[in-house]
Amino acid sequence: MNLPNTLALNCSTFSSLDDIHIATLTVTQTLSFALSSKTPGPNGCLPGILWKEFDAQVQGTLLHMLNISHTKQMLVGDEFAQGISGGEQKCVSIAEMMATCACVQCWDNSTRGLNALMALNCVKSLRVMTDHCAADARASGPLEYI
């Protein structure tokens, strides 16, 4: 089957167990970078909406869906630099994946290390995202049993 190049771009994504982020970026900057790789150019957005407004709205929606709106101006951090908690880092990784709106998504233990409420928020958000983007999500680990 020969697909046009525009359909084949960014069709699948994989979220690994490890959360690897640039520790010196804030949550907002991290999600802005993820969205900038997928947001259409100035002529690709809805009429009357600038791409910066579109990014801000999508970013706010993702943070709200995953219940991490309070972290948007905090550093992501890593094992050497202090930042948000490990569960919040996992939610940032999930938000980055959701920002891609890829048609095939593979998740490896995506809710590992999250408390029950955060895991439920992530699973519900994943369900909303798959319906909205007409995507297929495949998961391994604890997500299979929720």
Would you write up a description of this structure?
The protein is mainly α. The chain has a single domain (22-145), classed as P-loop containing nucleotide triphosphate hydrolases (Rossmann fold, 3-Layer(aba) Sandwich). Helix content is 42%, strand content 10%. It has five helices and three strands, in the order αβαααβαβ. It has helices at 5-8, 27-36, 51-65, 86-100, 116-133; strands at 12-15, 104-108, 136-140. Strands 1-2-3 form a three-stranded parallel β-sheet, with helices on one face. Helix 5 (116-133) links the parallel strand 2 (104-108) and strand 3 (136-140). The longest helix has 18 residues, at 116-133. It is globular. It starts with a helix and ends in a 6-residue tail after the last strand. Residues 1-5 have low confidence and may be disordered.
What is the topology?
Elements: H1 5-8, E1 12-15, H2 27-36, H3 51-65, H4 86-100, E2 104-108, H5 116-133, E3 136-140
Helix pairs in contact: 2-3, 2-4, 3-4, 4-5
Relevant terms:
146 residues; mainly alpha; Rossmann fold; three-stranded parallel β-sheet; globular; disordered N terminus
- Low-confidence segments, given as residue ranges, are 1-5
- How much of the sequence lies in strands comes to 5-15%
Tally the helices: what do you get?
5
The Rg value, from CA coordinates, equals 15 Å
- Oligomerization: single chain
Shape: globular
CATH class: Alpha Beta
Class by alpha and beta content:
mainly alpha
CATH topology (level 3) name: Rossmann fold
Mean pLDDT rating: 78
Strand order of the largest sheet: 1-2-3
Please report the total strand number as a whole number. Answer: 3
Number of domains: 1
Major sheet description: 3 strands, parallel
